[in-house]
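Why show two proteins at once? Because comparison is the fastest way to build intuition. When a single record is shown, students tend to memorize it. When two are placed side by side, the eye starts asking what differs. So, the first record is below.
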Amino acid sequence: MLAVIGKEVLPAYLRFQRFLEVTYVPAGREQPGITALPDGAKYYAFCIRRQTTTSLTAEQIHKIGEEEVKRDEAEMLVIAKQLGFTDLKAFQAAVKADPKLRPKSADALLDAYRGYENGMQAKLPSLFGTLPKAKLEVTTIPDYSAKSAPAAYYNQGAPDGSRPGRITVNVYNATERSLPDVEAVAYHEGIPGHHLQISIGEELTGIPEFRKFGGYTAFVEGWALYSERLGKEVGFYKDPYSDYGRLEADIWRAIRLVVDTGVHSQHWTREQMIDYFHAHSGMDDTNINAETDRYIAWPGQALAYKVGQLKILELRDRAKKALGPKFDIKAFHDEVLDSGALPLDVLDQRLTEWIAAQK
């Protein structure tokens, strides 16, 4: 084995290093935005269309992002002032420094997730006519990947019911994690977010198999972000710190609209992206740098979350105005979910026809 590594593996790495130094890096673009490449503006427009499944332009999305950042900041400031702080930066620093806002153990962190899921479970019959048969459990990220893994993610269950859906929680350095973040993440990853939407999709009948398991980021992540807000609308986030955590999660997705379009359509530098994050969030440098590099390397993908959420909210408002007292939130949610993940323009057409039928 050592001989193979010495004769084959190490020389291959050295050849790769030389290729990067001599050929690849010198040919790279100096500006981080994709518009620095030939036909880059057209390619970015294509990326937006593919990732958001809408006809929104980069300019429109940038403006929407700025408006959403302002709205979230205004709501965050109200909470900060209620808790005795005069500005957001002072409040963010206090939240980070308060040991009461961190779990005392890994078990305490898991229990927090389970508590929020149990509370939401009781609300589901008032929000949905169709509920998934698949069970949901909270488990932990394996130790070997925990150090570099996110705070939590969802693993969908087996279609035959032999394995439940799982919110997989990162308990690495559990006592250093933020409790205000947990409630929004629980609703996003579990119910009524990913678990409910994906499980309902898997359990559909009478449609082609690919429709049960396919996904459009703008729909799937848009629904999960909508679910974070839905928790607020049905009376949760009773702890103001959790409500602040919800808004932190929301403004993070709004910032994405600004910085992604900023770098790829308005010639922002990487430093401008980082500065915007610092100005409008309490995110640490490690995560800001990781997020910034993600947007540079993957044009348009990060736009899908907020655009999807806003489309679902827009359709709901449209249905409420059109139907008045006939509007039924359960029927609306069922109509959004009972065909599996859809492109947002198809979802718009579908809900437009549903509204007309209800009238």
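Second record. Ask yourself what differs from the first in the token line.
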Amino acid sequence: MSKIRAAITGVGGYVPDYVLTNNELEKMVETSDEWIVTRTGIRERRILKGENLGVSVMAIEAAKELLAKTQTDPKEIDAVIFATVTPDNIFPAASNLVANAIGAVNAFSYDMAAACSGFLFALHTGAAYIESGRCKKVVVIGGDRMSSIVDYTDRATCIIFGDGAACVLLEPTAEDDGLIDSVLRSDGSGFQYLHMKGGGSAMPATEETVANRYHYIHQEGSAVFKFAVTNMANVSEEIMRRNNLKGEDIAYLIAHQANKRIIDATAHRIGVPDEKVLMNIEKYGNTTAGTIPLLLWDFEKQLKKGDKIVFAAFGGGFTWGALYLKWTYNS
């Protein structure tokens, strides 16, 4: 009997209309378009504008597109897993709001917080439900409204992040495709370099925490860069070694879009040439859990059945990981 794997059978996505360019940021903080592009590869990012709009607004639109494209009855969805660090509320989960809005009345749903690695962690988890036979259709979402926790007076972070969400449908496959292997890691000692101090149970919101700007992202860029370059490349190399893959075997490297230099370093380490590295960082920036599914959304028509793909990510926590997947369909 063939091994049952989880296959991606469709992709949906959404980004807000408002474009925040580097030139506009030049008017907000001491920076320049040249400085930002040289160090990150980012030229613009999307920002969700409007009162009382959370990340679920984007995820709902992405999920609706996914259901329409795959002609999926929402009542057939068994689970919705939403990777995000910017849920609308501490509770209920943003995934609950999405499932309700799309009519997934028979699904259980929950959020997963693993920062920029969140989508890979959620994809791994969703695949386990499929492989076990407990679920037949799982929607995995990655998305963040990073503008809600970015300090636009802090030039170290405000140039990097944007808003967006995308999702995939996972279904069983008995063919030689789908999610084949994953390597996931975490290290809580990285807290000091990338975190948000306020808002959790250790430091609930007070006048003091707000005044001290503890409810915004804090990042020590050089330290995070060093950890990311090393660890994202390490797990990518490990997953290729475990599956007897070489650079020429890989159709595409789909890496978290945080910094072009980190992506380039990972590609160089595993021997994947530039033309096989998918990137959209220049127009979306870092959407945290949204970057990898947004890449799938942007490049879906380019992906072909049987393509061997390596996913890689690194994020706050620290969290990092790599997945090896064979693409299932032609668009």
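One difference worth noting in the second protein: The CA atoms of residues 5 and 49 lie 39 Å apart.
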